[in-house]
């Protein structure tokens, strides 16, 4: 198990690595609501594991939501080095699972499509980039290193390394002219 301070340091470094506007660690610590929401979630998720603290975890998650604009249910499982850019309007549901090195832009929803109990939210693989305003709905799977375009509505599984765009989202091939960028390509270039 990774030490909590190491997770916090990784989260901070992920923001620095993936945001070209980041000028210093101090600025990131003070001014990045996505990072604040993520750090709060690390605490509320630990609280959620112990039944007597579930209500307190839920209340703290709602306080964090009111302060950051990011709503993450304490039951959601988030991987390492998640970066939530801008953050406002991001919603991550209770049964969502998010892998390592994922980037979410503002307005992303990892939500459900039904009111039944059980797995209702998506599972997101490692290295996935989800564009602004995208909705990934239901107990679907998004494979490693997939990209979801801005404002896409994803209701079916997305294979690894695929690009999904549109409403409802369709899998598109990578244009041969698209530049390959190490960390995150702009999913909008595929629309």
Automatic annotation (TrEMBL):
<comment type="similarity">
    <text>Belongs to the transferase hexapeptide repeat family.</text>
</comment>
<keyword id="KW-0198">Cysteine biosynthesis</keyword>
<dbReference type="InterPro" id="IPR001451">
    <property type="entry name" value="Hexapep"/>
</dbReference>
<dbReference type="GO" id="GO:0009001">
    <property type="term" value="F:serine O-acetyltransferase activity"/>
</dbReference>
<keyword id="KW-0808">Transferase</keyword>
<keyword id="KW-0028">Amino-acid biosynthesis</keyword>
<dbReference type="GO" id="GO:0005737">
    <property type="term" value="C:cytoplasm"/>
</dbReference>
<dbReference type="InterPro" id="IPR045304">
    <property type="entry name" value="LbH_SAT"/>
</dbReference>
<dbReference type="GO" id="GO:0006535">
    <property type="term" value="P:cysteine biosynthetic process from serine"/>
</dbReference>
<keyword id="KW-0012">Acyltransferase</keyword>
<keyword id="KW-0677">Repeat</keyword>
<dbReference type="InterPro" id="IPR042122">
    <property type="entry name" value="Ser_AcTrfase_N_sf"/>
</dbReference>
<dbReference type="InterPro" id="IPR011004">
    <property type="entry name" value="Trimer_LpxA-like_sf"/>
</dbReference>
<dbReference type="InterPro" id="IPR005881">
    <property type="entry name" value="Ser_O-AcTrfase"/>
</dbReference>
<dbReference type="Pfam" id="PF00132">
    <property type="entry name" value="Hexapep"/>
</dbReference>
<dbReference type="InterPro" id="IPR018357">
    <property type="entry name" value="Hexapep_transf_CS"/>
</dbReference>
<dbReference type="InterPro" id="IPR053376">
    <property type="entry name" value="Serine_acetyltransferase"/>
</dbReference>
<comment type="pathway">
    <text>Amino-acid biosynthesis; L-cysteine biosynthesis; L-cysteine from L-serine: step 1/2.</text>
</comment>
<protein>
    <recommendedName>
        <fullName>Serine acetyltransferase</fullName>
        <ecNumber>2.3.1.30</ecNumber>
    </recommendedName>
</protein>
């Amino acid at each position: 198990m990774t030490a909590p301070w190491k997770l916090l340091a990784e989260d901070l470094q992920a923001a620095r690595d993936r945001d070209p506007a980041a000028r210093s660690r101090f600025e990131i610590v003070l001014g990045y609501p996505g990072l604040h929401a993520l750090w709060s979630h690390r605490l509320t998720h630990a609280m959620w594991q112990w039944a007597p603290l579930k209500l307190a975890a839920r209340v703290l998650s709602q306080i964090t939501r009111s302060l950051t604009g990011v709503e993450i249910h304490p039951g959601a499982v988030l991987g390492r080095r998640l970066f939530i850019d801008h953050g406002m309007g991001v919603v991550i549901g209770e049964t969502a699972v998010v892998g390592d090195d994922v980037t979410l832009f503002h307005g992303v929803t990892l939500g459900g499509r039904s009111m039944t109990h059980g797995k209702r939210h998506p599972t997101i693989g490692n290295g996935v980039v989800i564009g602004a305003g995208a909705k990934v709905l239901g107990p679907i799977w998004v494979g490693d290193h997939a990209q979801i375009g801005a404002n896409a509505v994803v209701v079916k599984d997305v294979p690894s390394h695929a690009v999904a765009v549109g409403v409802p989202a369709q899998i598109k091939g990578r244009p041969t002219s698209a530049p390959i960028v190490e960390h995150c390509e702009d999913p909008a270039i595929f629309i």
